[in-house]
Design brief:
10% strand; flat; alpha/beta
C-alpha cells in the first residue's frame, strides 16, 4: 500500500504548504513529507488511511481538527490537488485527522500490480523505489557460545533474534555481516578440561568412542566438575591454576593440545546445531585471539587524557554521565587496566570492536546480548565515542530477556539446562507423532523431514513473536499447536494456499492479471487482505529500523488470519464464474508470495504440504 500512502501524503503536504501561504504563517520552512505520519484508522468506516494534524498545531496556532478541515477544503478547491485526490479516493476530515477513503478498485490494482512486478523484492523498496536501508552496512554479533557446553534454550533465543534481525536488515536493503565471538578460554573452560583429565583421559574417552555429540560430551565434563567440586573445594583453585598455566604456556604443550582437542569437539558440535537451525555466520572470532586486544587503545587514550591513572595505579574512566552516580552518591569509574597492567573484559571488547571495524567497515553494529549486560554496553559505547570513533554513534545493544521453561530456571553447571538439540528432538518427535496420528505420512512425503521443519517453526516463531526485551516462558506444547499464533499455524496456512494453487493448475484454471483481478475483488474480506499485503514494505522498514523481529511475526499472523477469513467467506475454486476464480487465485498467489517471504525472515520453514 506504500505507493498509495505516498501519493496521499504528497497531496496533504501540498495542501499544508498552501495553508501556510494563505494564512501567512511563519512556518520557518516548507512542510516536508517526513513531517506526515500515515496510520490506519481504527474503524473501516472512518477511512483506509489517516494522517494526524497534531504536529502542526503549535506552528499554525490552530487546533488539529480545524487544520484537518481546512486541508480538506484546500484539496477540494484546488483543481490540481482535487484531480489527484479523486484518482485515489475521497479525502475527509475526521476530528484531528485527514483520512482517505480509497477507491478500492484503483488502489487494489496498484497494490497487486506492485506485488506481482517486484516479486521477491516486494517489501524491500520504499515509496521512492529505493531499498529502505540503502547504504547501511550492519555488522551483527550474536550467539557467543562457550566451549564448555552445548547450546541451550537461552542460546536459541539469542540465535533466533540474531539470525532473524540479520535477514530483516538484508531484506530492507542493508549489507549485513554476521559475526560470532566464541568464548573458548577462561576458568569455565578449564573446569571441563580438569574434569576430562580426572574422569576420562586415562580411558581415552572421546565423543566418537562414547557415541555422544562433541559439545554434549564437553558439557557433561562441565557438570561432572561441578559435582566433583562440591566434595573437593580445592578443585576451583586447581582450575584457576590451570588457566594461569594455559596463559603462560605455549601452543605445543600438553595443556594446549588438550584445550584445542576439547574446543574442537565443542565447536564442531555447536556448528552442527547451527546447520540444523539455519543459523550461519560470515566470520567467527575467538576469545583466545582477542582477549588481549584493546590494551594499546587504552594506553593511547591515557596519553590523550581521555582516561586517568587512579591512586592504586589502575587506568580508569569516569562513566557517571551514562550510568548516573552510585548508590553512595559518588561518581562511577570503570577500570580499564588493572594496577598490574593486565586487561579486563571491557578492554577486550574495546579492542575487538576496533579490530572488527578494520576487518569490515560497518556504519552500524548490533550486539545481540541478554539484558544482564545493559550496563556493560552503555559503558562500552561511551568509551568508544570518547576515543573518537564516528561509527560508535551507531552501536546498538539488542537486549533481550530471560527465557525459561514452565518448570523454572536453568543452570548449566548443575545439568538442569535444556540442550537445544534435545529440545528440537522432542518437538520433532511430537510433531511426527501428530502426523502419524492423522495418517498424513504419505501425503506429506518425508514425514521425518516435515516434522523437523514443524519443530523449527514452533521453536523459532514462539521465541520471536514476543518483543525481545521481555522475559518469557517457552511452552513446548503451545508452540506446536496448529491453531492460533504459532509457527505451525503459519506453515499450515502456506500449505493450504499451495494446495489450492496446485488444484487450480491441475484443473487448468487461469490466474488473472492484477488489473483484471482488482476489478472483481470487491468483497470486504478481499479488500482487508489486499490492504494488509500492501503494508508489507512498511512492516519491513519498521522491523529493520527497530531491530525487532516481533513486528514481522505479528504481521504474518495478521495475514494468515485475514486469508483464512477471506477463504471462508469467498470461495476460490468454487466461486463459479471463471473470471472471479481467476481473480481470487491471483490474490491467493500474492498472499503466498508474501507469506513465504516473511516466514523465512522469522526462521519459519515453508512447507507446501502438511
Amino acid at each position: 500500500m506504500a505507493d498509495v500512502k505516498a501519493d496521499c501524503r504528497a497531496i496533504v503536504v501540498a495542501a499544508l504548504n498552501e495553508f501556510v501561504k494563505v494564512k501567512n504563517i511563519d512556518a520557518g520552512s516548507a512542510v516536508s513529507e517526513d513531517a506526515i505520519s500515515v496510520e490506519n484508522p481504527p474503524k473501516p468506516e472512518m477511512g483506509d488511511i489517516g494522517m494526524p494534524m497534531f504536529p502542526f498545531a503549535k506552528t499554525f496556532r490552530a487546533a488539529p481538527p480545524m487544520i484537518a478541515a481546512e486541508i480538506v477544503k484546500i484539496i477540494e478547491a484546488n483543481a490540481e490537488l482535487s484531480s489527484r485526490a479523486k484518482a485515489i479516493g475521497t479525502f475527509v476530515a475526521v476530528g484531528p485527522y485527514v483520512n482517505v477513503k480509497l477507491d478500492k478498485a484503483g488502489a487494489a490494482a496498484g497494490l497487486l500490480e506492485r506485488i506481482a512486478k517486484e516479486g521477491e523484492k516486494y517489501g524491500q523498496l520504499n515509496d521512492a523505489g529505493k531499498a529502505h536501508l540503502e547504504g547501511r552496512r550492519v555488522m551483527v554479533e550474536f550467539s557467543s557460545p562457550n566451549t564448555n557446553k552445548p547450546l541451550h534454550l537461552g542460546h536459541m533465543r539469542n540465535d533466533a533474534l540474531g539470525e532473524s534481525v540479520s535477514r530483516i536488515l538484508k531484506k530492507a536493503g542493508a549489507e549485513v555481516y554476521k559475526v560470532n565471538i566464541i568464548n573458548n578460554r577462561g576458568v569455565h573452560i578449564c573446569k571441563s578440561m580438569l574434569a576430562y583429565k580426572l574422569f576420562h583421559e586415562a580411558k581415552g574417552d572421546t565423543p566418537e568412542s562414547l557415541g555422544i555429540k562433541g559439545d554434549h560430551f564437553v558439557g557433561q565434563c562441565y557438570v561432572e566438575f561441578d559435582k566433583y567440586a562440591k566434595e573437593h573445594p580445592e578443585a576451583n583453585a586447581q582450575a584457576e591454576e590451570m588457566l594461569v598455566q594455559w596463559e603462560q604456556g605455549s601452543d605445543d604443550d600438553d595443556l594446549h593440545k588438550l584445550w584445542r582437542m576439547m574446543n574442537g569437539w565443542a565447536i564442531d558440535g555447536v556448528k552442527e546445531t547451527y546447520d540444523r537451525t539455519g543459523v550461519s555466520f560470515d566470520k567467527l572470532y575467538f576469545e583466545s585471539e582477542t582477549y588481549l586486544k584493546g590494551k594499546e587503545e587504552i594506553m593511547k587514550g591515557l596519553e590523550k587524557g581521555i582516561f586517568f591513572k587512579a591512586d592504586d595505579g589502575s587506568v580508569r574512566i569516569d562513566v557517571t554521565s551514562v550510568t548516573g552516580k552510585g548508590k553512595d552518591g559518588e561518581n562511577q569509574e570503570k577500570v580499564l587496566l588493572r594496577k598490574d597492567g593486565t586487561s579486563v573484559y571491557i578492554t577486550q571488547d574495546i579492542g575487538t570492536a576496533i579490530f572488527r571495524h578494520n576487518d569490515w567497515a560497518f556504519n552500524q553494529m548490533v550486539y545481540v546480548v541478554a539484558s544482564e549486560q545493559n550496563y556493560h554496553f552503555k559503558v562500552l559505547f561511551y568509551i568508544l565515542k570518547q576515543l573518537g570513533f564516528d561509527w560508535a554513534e551507531r552501536l546498538y545493544h539488542l537486549s533481550y530477556g530471560m527465557v525459561n521453561l514452565p518448570n523454572g530456571r536453568m543452570k548449566s553447571r548443575e545439568g538442569t539446562v535444556v540442550d537445544a538439540d534435545d529440545l528440537i528432538d522432542s518437538l520433532r518427535d511430537d510433531a511426527l507423532a501428530e502426523i502419524k496420528a492423522k495418517g498424513r505420512e504419505e501425503e506429506v512425503g518425508d514425514a521425518s523431514a516435515v516434522a523437523e521443519k514443524v519443530a523449527l517453526a514452533a521453536l523459532h516463531y514462539y521465541l520471536l513473536q514476543i518483543t525481545p526485551i521481555k522475559d518469557m516462558v517457552f511452552n513446548p506444547q503451545e508452540s506446536l499447536s496448529f491453531n492460533g499464533n504459532t509457527g505451525p499455524y503459519l506453515q499450515y496456512m502456506g500449505a493450504r494456499i499451495a494446495s489450492i494453487l496446485r488444484k487450480a493448475d491441475e484443473a487448468g484454471a487461469k490466474i488473472a492479471s492484477a488489473q483484471d483481478a482488482a476489478a472483481l475483488l470487491t468483497a470486504a474480506e478481499e479488500w482487508d487482505l489486499i490492504k494488509k499485503l500492501g503494508d508489507y514494505p512498511a512492516t519491513i522498514a519498521k522491523a529493520a529500523e527497530n531491530l525487532d523481529a516481533s513486528v514481522v511475526a505479528a504481521y504474518l499472523y495478521d495475514v494468515a488470519k485475514l486469508f483464512s477469513k477471506f477463504y471462508q467467506q469467498c470461495p476460490i475454486l468454487a466461486a463459479g464464474e471463471e473470471k472471479l476464480v481467476s481473480a481470487r487465485l491471483f490474490l491467493a498467489q500474492c498472499t503466498l508470495q508474501v507469506l513465504k517471504d516473511a516466514m523465512q525472515l522469522v526462521l519459519v520453514p515453508y512447507l507446501d504440504r502438511m
